[in-house]
Amino acid sequence: MALSLCLILGSSCTSEHKRSDNTDSIDSSHTVDTMATATPEVKPSGEKPEWGKDIKPEMQAVIEKLASYKDTPIPQLVPKQARKNHTPTDAVKDLMKENQIPMPPSKVDTMGKEIAVTGGNIHLRIYTPKNSNGPFPVIVYYHGGGFVIANLDVYDASAKGLAEQVGAVVVSVAYRLAPEHKYPTAHHDAFAAYKWVTQNAASIKGDPKKIAVVGESAGGNLACNVSIMARDNKITQPVHEVLIYPVANSDMNAESYQKYANAKPLDKAMMMWFVKYYTYSPEEARAPMISLVKANLKGLPPTTIINAEIDPLESEGKLLADKMKDAGVDVNRKLYDGVTHEFFGMAAIVPQAKDAQAFAADQLKKAFGM
Fold first, then answer.
1. Is residue 172 annotated as a catalytic residue, yes or no?
2. Per its UniProt record, what InterPro entries does this chain match (predicted)?
């Protein structure tokens, strides 16, 4: 679940209350070039937090900016209120303005698509590389937010960065959120979107033989479940999956939960809040669909797992990698020191995010035979 809030921060993002998921023509003046040759140095102003004595300076600056908005903590709010809080994306954007970091023009075009799912419709935002006709490999991307908050805008930088660096069509999925749509609605929506892509790849300049899934936090959980459901339903499986600090276990007494219980932007209290609103009972959080470490992982595609050190979810990322290896899955896990949950989309500010995006892109390009 993870607040993946905004991770993505790379930055063309805005807070949820400022833009709707259905706005798909992204203003390039607000877009971060994740391929920039140099990441400008952004410095924090205060002491390192007690929960993150190893935090990198750029990461600390983002956390300080996020704290400066003085929003009510999410666990004290109801979801409709929480969705109006500032996000890490807002913090990155403001730091860019303050440090005069330019936003180069986008290298992708975007369009929106509504598709039918059981009980309604969901929105897809499709990113297509400019100045080429394809066919392109396709990445189906699932944003974070604990299945409760965040949207396509908050994670726009991650989706855009992958499209640009891989040279792929990225289909970002606006699955329905809880508590309006509780467990397992998001999971079913995620699979429905994947099936749509497998059946309609050519219509979006995609190659139906080269489809991967990527997700952050709650979205990482969804991406892995899509691979499991594709296997069980005997349809085309992804050629690769990239799971970025995925939600993979219900054990909130794990080592990283204890060590980083008060970390930001994701803490233990927030994870408890996500479980409360997405599931009907604590028992559901222990089901294999949420606690992936209990799932049948055999026969899944090659997998890349990216974790942040200063993150309650770090332990379960490691455990998931171990469980996958035991199941015979080809898995490659990389841990980034000194950064927090949500760092992946912050390539415009945080050097480790730039490296993580390049690493993910390289893994995907290898899987696509590029």
1. no
2. AB_hydrolase_3 (IPR013094), AB_hydrolase_fold (IPR029058), GDXG_lipolytic_enzyme (IPR050300)
